[in-house]
């Protein structure tokens, strides 16, 4: 028996509401996971009491941005975005620790291990998206923005540990400067094609910053490693800017890498 159009619309609306509610549940579970990780750090390592507020605050800020950017259809996050959200909980805890350099100094291995676990999940979300057919523009943006924020957090951690000068923030701020430049030069806003070199440089940045966090890496070595990562970043951005400049007058659909 065929259903009426009204009935079909009602079922679709009900399904959309259910998907939206699962998204809220995912974000709430993420906050609960942050709380569990923070309490475990308190129990195992006597972390500062303020970590509950700093880590929780960072996660709430991330969740707020997710809600702000969530598509109007308000569909559920999906498995790929759940993996990214899991990474976000770890990044939130690391970011919450940055304001406690003395604690980070005593437990640098643990901070690096948590950061490494977050890094290891990077790429899995893309694999999950392909396997489950849930790839989306929102998911790609969520992953990219989290990567950019993670780099800023690691740069801030190195500054807090007095291993690298404040110039290292250029590694984390480069992408945001690129976004601001796009306001004045619209040709920079063209969507870039997939580049494995760009992805490799991003992973290299994070891996380098993680290595610099380790206690046996002194300031001189950390500065040298960070400088090498900065050089690769300049090459990556320079490569992309040159491509964008060359294609600034061409129709988007005709552009090729």
From TrEMBL:
<keyword id="KW-0808">Transferase</keyword>
<dbReference type="InterPro" id="IPR048254">
    <property type="entry name" value="CDP_ALCOHOL_P_TRANSF_CS"/>
</dbReference>
<keyword id="KW-0812">Transmembrane</keyword>
<feature type="transmembrane region" description="Helical">
    <location>
        <begin position="223"/>
        <end position="242"/>
    </location>
</feature>
<dbReference type="InterPro" id="IPR043130">
    <property type="entry name" value="CDP-OH_PTrfase_TM_dom"/>
</dbReference>
<feature type="transmembrane region" description="Helical">
    <location>
        <begin position="51"/>
        <end position="73"/>
    </location>
</feature>
<protein>
    <submittedName>
        <fullName>Membrane protein</fullName>
    </submittedName>
</protein>
<comment type="similarity">
    <text>Belongs to the CDP-alcohol phosphatidyltransferase class-I family.</text>
</comment>
<keyword id="KW-1133">Transmembrane helix</keyword>
<feature type="transmembrane region" description="Helical">
    <location>
        <begin position="21"/>
        <end position="45"/>
    </location>
</feature>
<dbReference type="Pfam" id="PF01066">
    <property type="entry name" value="CDP-OH_P_transf"/>
</dbReference>
<feature type="transmembrane region" description="Helical">
    <location>
        <begin position="85"/>
        <end position="104"/>
    </location>
</feature>
<feature type="transmembrane region" description="Helical">
    <location>
        <begin position="167"/>
        <end position="188"/>
    </location>
</feature>
<keyword id="KW-0472">Membrane</keyword>
<feature type="transmembrane region" description="Helical">
    <location>
        <begin position="200"/>
        <end position="217"/>
    </location>
</feature>
<dbReference type="InterPro" id="IPR000462">
    <property type="entry name" value="CDP-OH_P_trans"/>
</dbReference>
């Amino acid at each position: 028996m065929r259903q009426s159009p009204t009935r079909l619309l009602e079922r679709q609306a009900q399904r959309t509401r259910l998907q939206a509610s699962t998204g809220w549940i995912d974000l709430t579970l993420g906050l609960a996971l942050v709380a569990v990780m923070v309490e475990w750090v308190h129990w195992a390592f006597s972390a500062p009491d303020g970590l509950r507020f700093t880590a929780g605050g960072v996660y709430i800020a991330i969740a707020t941005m997710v809600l702000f950017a969530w598509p109007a259809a308000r569909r559920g996050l999906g498995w790929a975005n759940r993996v990214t959200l899991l990474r976000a909980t770890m990044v939130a805890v690391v970011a919450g620790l940055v304001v406690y350099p003395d604690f980070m100094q005593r437990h640098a291995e643990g901070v690096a291990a948590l950061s490494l676990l977050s890094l290891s999940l990077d790429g899995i979300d893309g694999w999950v998206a392909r396997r489950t057919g849930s790839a989306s523009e929102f998911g790609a943006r969520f992953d990219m923005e989290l990567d950019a924020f993670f780099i800023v957090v690691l740069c801030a951690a190195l500054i807090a540990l007095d291993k690298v000068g404040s110039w290292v923030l250029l590694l984390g701020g480069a992408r945001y400067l690129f976004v601001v430049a796009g306001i004045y030069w619209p040709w920079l806003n063209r969507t870039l094609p997939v580049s494995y070199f760009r992805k490799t440089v991003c992973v290299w940045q994070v891996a380098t910053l993680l290595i610099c966090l380790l206690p046996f890496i002194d300031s001189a070595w950390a500065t040298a490693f960070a400088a090498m990562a900065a050089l690769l970043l300049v090459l990556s951005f320079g490569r992309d800017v040159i491509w964008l400049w060359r294609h600034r007058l061409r129709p988007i659909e005709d552009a090729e890498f």
